[in-house]
Design brief:
With 553 residues, the protein is of the alpha/beta class. The chain is built from eleven helices and 20 strands. Helix 10 links the parallel strand 19 and strand 20. Helix 5 packs parallel to helix 7, helix 8 runs parallel beside helix 9 and helix 10 packs parallel to helix 11. It binds ligand 9MR.
């Protein structure tokens, strides 16, 4: 049965759509046949009273692991690369180089993010780079523009925004585009090009937003339906507007999706950036939410300097190098602990930490991932990390060993073997974090077996990163059916029932609503993947109802 607020939201959007159809029919924008053809600006329309905007795409090019974050070159011989020169903010921007025609640029797939009948707002910062003139020293300028294209047989182009950009500073490019309500769904891309100059282009902080219906207020709060803390992974963009409303309605614990990782906290040795972490912790304190700290010792999102000496020589298992790495591990934890005490004192919301993340590799003889931590310190790096965390964060913080696919039998064996060793060695590990990145078709019995195995060892357990993908990573989703979403809801219910039967410390999902899932860009573009409890419009899915049913049954 459809819920009243959903119907109201749908009615509101339908009214918007009808108004837009009328406006668009009066003055239709001209689709152009090729990317190099002249664009017609989207006709100006009387703005419809805006419902609140939600960001559906946000890219700052700051994460080195994400490289160009899904942006691809447009044109023969063109390259689109993440660059650390002159970013607008943060540490990176996109550099588009090798352009030989004005329409050469960069593009990103926005299929699933844009919809007919809705006004989308696009904003980005642009700047010119090298080339495009005889005098490389001269201050150059040129017109840079963004276009939205429906690709395939019935291709159409919608000019979104243009601006005069220069080589000596950043310029903001903003605009709106409304796709006619009768546009059929299809594949969509957003691209950057210029009207004149052949200079390199730089791009930073791209954002696409669209209106979202109000957060449903008639459905039960997840966190309010149980004593078990219910968490979600967040980034700064989730902490305002409708996403924040949704968050505060259903969750009472947060994990920073990226803001507390070593690459963010200590990008350069001794230079700490607590800003992104504080943004999340301040929000948690202001709203009385707990925080699960993620993460301290990991092979990913950890800067290379950890594992090289000051001259850039890779550290080895030599005792002096080992001591250097142990010192760095401690200094990193110590600085975070001191910062938390100074800034929050008794109100510090971080109750637990993923001390070691993803240490398992059942393909290795000892079942452990042979990461750089392992190469230098050997398998004892895990015990060292827990000892150090206990000493630094104190006895009241829950220290967690966090890993993925712990439901797979080979990884369960590797986990049990590691835990037995840690317990025998007296390592101060309190709990196991099961990430639970699952998919429709995952076996609840295997999950149950793993939770039993860990319980038998006497350790507490938490569900740290739950999401339930609709497809396997190598599958392509052309459309999402109601049956798939129902199957997802059924599995979520069975999983949460299984978790609850094992008395978890908390159950946390890896993202607030489908737009925000990491799975849309891993291991490649998967624009329709929808593994979370709330959809792109922040509305409850069958997965939410399954979760709630398990909490209340
Ligand atoms: O969702 C996170 C993504 O934005 C980051 O680029 C990536 C690398 O830091 O990490 C993702 O989160 C991972 C988490 O930190 C550990 N478990 C697996 C999660 C999904 O990859």
């Amino acid at each position: 049965m459809r819920r009243p607020a959903l119907i109201l939201g749908t009615v509101a959007l339908t009214v918007v759509a009808v108004v837009l159809v009328v406006l668009v029919l009066r003055d239709p924008p001209a689709p152009t046949p090729t990317a190099s053809a002249t664009m017609q600006p989207t006709p100006s329309v009387t703005p419809v009273v805006p419902t609140e905007l939600s960001t559906v795409l946000t890219t700052d090019f700051d994460d080195p692991e994400q490289d160009a974050a899904g942006w691809e070159p447009l044109g023969e011989g063109v390259e689109a690369l993440r660059s650390e020169e002159v970013p607008h903010t943060g540490t990176g921007s996109l550099l588009v180089t090798g352009r030989s025609a004005p329409w050469n640029g960069a593009q990103v797939d926005v299929t699933g993010l844009v919809s007919p009948g809705i006004q989308h707002t696009v904003a980005a910062w642009v700047r010119l780079g090298q080339g495009g003139g005889d005098d490389p020293g001269a201050v150059r300028s040129g017109t840079v523009r963004m276009t939205l294209q429906r690709t395939g047989d019935a291709e159409q182009f919608w000019h979104v925004a243009d601006a005069r950009a220069t080589a000596d500073g950043w310029t903001e490019l903003t605009g709106t585009v409304t796709l006619p309500a009768d546009t059929t769904d299809g594949q969509w891309r957003l691209y950057l090009e210029s009207a004149d100059t052949l200079a390199d282009l730089r791009l930073d902080e791209v954002r696409v937003s669209r209106p979202t219906p109000p957060v449903q207020t008639e459905i039960a709060s997840l966190a309010g339906s149980t004593d078990v803390p219910i968490g979600t992974a967040v980034a700064e963009q989730d902490l305002s507007g409708r996403p924040a409303e949704l968050l505060l309605r259903h969750f009472d614990q947060l994990t920073a999706e990226n803001a507390m990782k070593p690459s963010v906290v200590q990008p350069t040795e001794g230079q700490f950036d607590f800003g992104p972490m504080d943004t999340i912790l301040d929000f948690a304190v202001a709203h009385g939410l707990a925080v699960h700290g993620h993460t301290l010792v990991w092979h990913r999102s950890t800067p290379d300097w950890f594992f090289t000496d000051p001259d850039g020589r890779p550290l080895t298992a030599d005792p002096a190098d080992q001591q250097l790495l142990r010192d760095r591990m401690r200094a990193h934890m110590q600085a975070i602990a001191e910062h938390l005490t100074e800034r929050y004192g008794a109100a510090n919301p971080v109750n637990s930490w993923d001390v070691v993340n993803e240490a398992l590799d059942p393909g290795e003889g000892d079942g452990l991932r042979h990461s750089r931590w392992y190469d230098v310190l050997g398998p004892t790096y895990i015990g060292t990390a827990f000892d150090t965390a206990r000493a630094v964060f104190g006895p009241d913080v829950t220290l967690v060993l966090n890993d993925y696919d712990t439901d797979a039998p080979d990884r369960r064996r590797a986990l049990s073997s590691l835990l037995s060793t840690l317990i025998a060695d007296g390592v101060p590990i309190d709990a196991v974090g099961h990430q639970m990145h699952l998919r429709v078709g995952s076996s609840v019995a295997q999950v149950d077996a793993t939770l039993d195995a860990v319980a038998d060892l006497g350790l507490r357990q938490a569900i740290t990163e739950l999401d339930v993908a609709l497809t396997a990573p190598d599958q392509q989703l052309d459309t999402v059916t109601a049956d798939q979403l129902t199957a997802q809801g059924t599995l979520v219910r069975q999983l949460v029932e299984t978790f609850l039967a094992h008395d978890p410390e908390f159950i946390s999902v890896w993202g607030l609503y489908d737009t925000r899932t990491w799975l849309r860009s891993w291991p490649r573009d998967r624009p329709l993947e929808a593994p979370l409890l709330f959809d792109d419009d922040l509305q409850a899915k069958p997965a939410y109802h399954g979760f709630l049913a398990a909490l209340t049954s």
